[in-house]
Design a protein that fits this description.
about 325 residues; alpha/beta; Rossmann fold; 2 domains; seven-stranded parallel beta sheet; six-stranded mixed beta sheet; 11 helices
Length: about 325
């Protein structure tokens, strides 16, 4: 029977799920409810197993990790991001990598809507004012009739676009793989940045998108524009974004992701009054957790049955 290990379930999500209970009823699982902390510890936990179910993106599956784990056949990721995995190295070692696409799209789209509205309506500042005995009014921005620019039309970007249309916003989009059949007005990136009242980022982190938005891009945005990021912090030049917000060259930002996570105390972003910050939680709801964890386990079952699904890095085909 194939050996399965979960090396990094902290804070605990998998261990508390119904999906995990069902898995342990049918298969033996080695389970850790702490983070490995180091690459050596990660290797120590997984080197003797054939299947790894990865929970945290803080666990980095490098070429060295794959080299040190010759028995591994499958890395089943919880989530859609693969920036913590050297996919080329996995393929070289004949290791399949799967993820759980689509399960968090609705939740992240809702969170993006929340961040956009919270910044536009200055919810945090107004709440704090009321709590302090003030009565701050007339400081909000109405979004009906405004233009939302979506960067990236994957499942999340499309869902957020539909939500924004539902509150009366005009939606335009730029995507790496343009397809008019997606049903949204496609424009070039410069135009999107120049005309949008809200710019929302929905790209995956990759070599092509690392530092994708920097000074040249933020300079094109309206001084009244709002920036929303629920994708990955490293897609944005964070230092430039901070200076842009500090100088009020854009109106504000709603951010769920950062270069360094957890966000350190006293981080410059925490000193700004034109941001709303959340702790990389856009895709974490009870519904999403259970569905995503169940799919990560289902991907294991499909792989063992010879019918792999949701594969992002297929095993290398060895020629005889």
């Amino acid at each position: 029977m194939s050996s399965i290990v979960i090396p990094d379930d902290y804070p605990v999500v998998m261990g508390a799920s119904n999906a995990y209970r069902r898995l342990t009823e049918t298969k033996p699982v080695t389970y850790y409810d702490s983070l490995p902390g180091t690459e050596d510890t990660l290797v120590e936990r997984i080197r003797d197993c054939e299947i790894v179910i990865n929970i945290r993106s803080s666990s980095k599956f490098t070429a060295r990790v794959f080299e040190a784990c010759p028995r591994m056949k499958l890395l089943s990721l919880w989530g859609t991001g693969t920036d913590n995995v050297d996919l080329a190295a996995a393929a070289r070692h004949g290791i399949a990598v799967t993820n759980t696409p689509g399960v968090s799209a609705a939740s992240i789209a809702e969170h993006s809507l929340m961040l956009m509205l919270a910044v536009a309506r200055r919810v945090v500042a107004i709440h704090n004012g009321v709590v302090a005995g003030e009565w701050p009014r007339g400081q909000s921005i109405q979004l009906q009739g405004k233009t939302l620019g979506i960067i990236g039309l994957g499942a999340i970007g499309r869902q957020f676009a539909r939500l924004a249309q539902g509150i009366g916003m005009r939606v335009i989009a730029w995507t790496m793989h343009p397809n008019p059949a997606l049903g949204f007005e496609l424009v070039d990136l410069d135009q999107l940045l120049r005309v949008s009242d809200v710019v929302s980022l929905h790209l995956r982190l990759s070599e092509d998108t690392l530092g994708f938005l920097g000074g040249a891009q933020f300079e094109k945005m309206k001084p009244t524009a709002i920036f929303v990021n629920t994708a990955r912090g490293a897609i944005v030049d964070e230092a430039v974004l901070i200076e842009t917000l500090r100088a009020r060259r854009i109106a504000g930002a709603g951010l769920d992701v950062f270069d360094r996570e957890p966000l350190p105390a006293e981080h410059p972003l925490t000193k700004l009054d034109n941001v709303v910050l959340t702790p990389h939680c856009a895709g974490i709801t009870p519904e999403v957790l259970e569905a995503g964890l169940a799919l990560a386990i289902e991907n294991v079952a499909n792989f063992l049955n010879g019918n792999p699904q949701n594969t992002v890095s297929p095993p290398k085909v060895h020629q005889s």
